[in-house]
Design goal:
4-stranded parallel β-sheet, Rossmann fold, globular, binds phosphoric acid mono(formamide)ester, 10 strands, 12 helices, about 325 residues, binds N-acetyl-L-norvaline, alpha/beta, about 35% helix
Length: about 325
């Protein structure tokens, strides 16, 4: 695997899941693979899980790790070509990226959607610049349109908890005070489709995601109908993709996942990528219930990252 930016890069999904089980049974099995190899993690945005789980994954493989927070101590980077750099940005990303590539063997990049231009975000301009100019294998730690390390961990988690071969998985929008990227729901839909699960997406009208990711997954605008018989509920807030790109179209708190909706499911497990705002996305009762698997889901980030780094090293 040269780069890891979507489900298409992981190859056979069943083989990848088998590797996840192998790693989970013995996380240090490939500790020699990364000896004297260096991972550089570049963060343009905040992180708790991705930072810790990816560093742990690299340590599982015997790698050295460098973390760069672009917004804390690095030079402010210009990302557009052709700009007269007479403002507050001291360095251009077109020099910064190849320089970063000099000091490492693999690069992870976190660069969220900016919501300034749908084209800029959906072309994955920043991530692709790393791929083009770093000379290193690059992986997404959540880029503008996808968060594949999260979705891979989500898939591993569902495989661990599912009681039927093809569970009903409901991706539900939920309200949030800030406009959030579509990266997590995009990737989640893509991975669930690839796994062949019965995926249903529910959100208020106007929140349709890019079909490139959701494919043929049905959209049910009635959240209660969507939840009926669900085996897994995956909550996430996102801003509009169509029309008012990056806009908040609804603040309707009846979409907050509560016991009311969970009652019509097939005793569904509750999932969320975290960080989650309680009583906006999900009530205290649901996230604290025995059906909430958000912590094992987060724990599996170490496993998905270990499998992906192993591929990038191999
Ligand atoms: C980010 C998002 O919604 O994409 C990261 C989630 C992993 N969440 C926030 O910014 C709150
Ligand atoms: N789920 C996830 O990617 O969390 P962080 O933003 O804390 O890394």
């Amino acid at each position: 695997m040269k780069h890891f930016t979507s489900v298409h890069d992981i190859g056979n999904l069943q083989a990848a899941l088998a590797e996840a089980v192998e790693i989970k049974n013995d996380r240090f099995k490939y500790v020699e693979l990364g000896r004297n190899k260096t991972l550089l993690m570049v963060f343009f945005n905040s992180s708790l899980r991705t930072r810790l789980s990816t560093q742990k994954a690299a340590m599982n493989l015997g790698m050295n790790v460098i973390v760069l927070d672009i917004n804390q101590g690095a030079w402010k980077l210009e990302t557009e070509r052709g700009v007269v750099m007479d403002g507050d940005k001291s360095e251009h990303i077109l020099e910064a990226i190849p320089v970063m590539g000099c000091y490492c063997d693999v690069i992870g990049v976190r660069s969220f959607a900016r919501f300034e231009s749908r084209e800029f975000d959906y072309q994955e301009t920043i991530l692709n610049q790393f791929i083009q100019y770093s000379g290193r294998p690059v992986f997404s730690m959540e880029a503008a349109t996808g968060h594949p390390l999260q979705s891979f961990a989500d898939l591993i988690t569902i495989e661990e908890y599912k009681k039927t071969a093809r569970p009903k998985v409901v991706l539900t929008w939920a309200p949030h005070p800030k406009p959030l990227p579509q990266a997590v729901p995009n990737s989640f839909a893509e991975w669930m489709n690839a796994a062949g699960y019965d995926l249903v997406i529910t959100h208020p009208e106007g929140y349709e995601l890019d079909k490139k990711f959701t494919g043929n997954a049905p959209i049910e605008y009635d959240q209660m109908k969507a939840f009926a018989g669900a085996d897994f509920v995956y909550a996430k807030s996102w801003a509009a993709y169509e029309g008012d790109y990056g806009g908040i179209l609804s603040t309707d708190r009846s979409w907050t996942v509560s016991d009311r909706q969970m009652a019509v499911t097939n005793n569904a497990y509750f999932m969320h990528c975290l960080p989650v705002r309680r009583n906006m996305i999900v009530t205290d009762e649901v996230i604290e219930s025995p059906q909430s698997i958000v912590i094992p889901e987060a724990a599996n980030r170490e496993i998905s990252a270990t499998v992906v780094l192993k591929h990038l090293l191999g």
